[in-house]
Structures are given as C-alpha cells and as structure tokens.
Design brief:
This is 2-oxoglutarate dehydrogenase E1. The chain has about 140 residues and is of the alpha+beta class. It has five helices and six strands; from the N terminus they run βαββααβααββ. It has one domain: Hypothetical protein (Archaeosine Trna-guanine Transglycosylase, Chain: A, domain 4, Roll), CATH 2.30.130. The model has no long low-confidence stretch (mean pLDDT about 95).
Length: about 140
Amino acid sequence: MKCLTIRQPWATLIALGEKQFETRSWQTAYRGDLAIHAGMRVDKAICGTEPYQSVLARYGFTADNLPSGMIIATSRLADCCGVTVEQAQQGWPGGNEHVFGDYAEGRFAWKLEEVVPLAHPIPAKGRLGFWEYPVLEGEQ
C-alpha cells in the first residue's frame, strides 16, 4: 500500500478526521488508497497553540503522547488541487482546516477521504514522498 509520512500533530489530526486536506509543495497524479504514517518528529510548539491544543485535548492527546514512527490510519487520496491566488487571499478552505495547512498560492491541497484510524498502529520507518508498506489489509 502507498504510504505518506506526515509530521505530528498533522498526521493525528488527519486520523481523527479533523484535517481533510494535506498540503504539499508538490502535486501528484496518484488517486487511491493511502496509508498515513506519523513521522518521528513532533512539532511540540505548535501543539501548545490554538486551535491545535484544544482539538488534540478533545481526544486525549498532547505533544507528549502523540504516536510517532507508526502507520496510524488508512485513507483514499481523492484529489489534488493547486491553491490559486484567489483561494489564498480568501483563506480557503476556512476554519480549522485553513489553520491546519499551508494554503499559500502555488501549494497543493490533497483531499483525503474515507479516513480510518488503525486500532493497532503499525511501527514503520517513514520516508520522503510516497513509499510502500507490504500489507495493511486486515490490520485495521
């Protein structure tokens, strides 16, 4: 299965359904199943700011107990769209979603759907870009 490593707390926000777009500096033509891997690095400073702190706390998370170095969810990458000047100026997509990503002009918003957190996260070493994990079927 294709995997994408995402730093914390953003990986957990996706797994919780609080973040529906992953923003990247590069686009992809890939559409399909995508596992979400929580990287080893946790941005502890951002975890202490709002709305991150409140959203994470609602689920019992802090900067100190976020999973790292693990595949934590599966999803379907449904779309990838470039952020336009107009969208950037209007603060698209709005709300916490806008705060949780980098929607500057020229970046790309990857729409994640059908996110399912894994009941038992799978330890794995992440990589840059897409990478493959041999099996995820039945491990949810």
